[in-house]
Amino acid sequence: MALRVLQAVAAVAVLCRFPVTLTRAGDRSEGTPGQSYVAAVYEHRVILNPEPHVPLSRAAALKHMMSNLDVYEEQAARAAEQGAQIIVFPEDGLQGFNFSRLSISAYLETIPDPQSEDWNPCTQTDRHTHTEVCTEPDPERISWAGL
Q1: What sequence ranges are listed for the domain CN hydrolase (predicted)?
Q2: What is the tens place of the pLDDT at every residue in 94-126?
Q3: In a domain, 113, yes or no
């Protein structure tokens, strides 16, 4: 089994005062062309809900998440300009944190069990409810990410 190596190519660009780190990943021992890629890791200052314990409507929660998604879109395009082929965003970067069980509910998306159902939210937009972050206004907005 070949040793997998992550080799830092560059820690580049402060984008909106946050670093995007580009890393080349691949199998150094095999040296086969096409066996590596350039990845970017983005640190995001989340646009937070000022009152995370107050429940919002689904429309208000979507508007809030879209404001963070707008930043993701811009940063993905910038990372692609610098050679990134894939980008990693923070786990809670779209909605933020400090929610109560009740107040987070408007932010939640349907994620069906992949063992019982084969579903692509970008091509089957009407199959489940509460999938707007992936499907609105453009069904390919999340999946393309400018890369």
Answers
A1: 50-147
A2: 999 999 999 999 998 878 898 999 888 777 778
A3: no
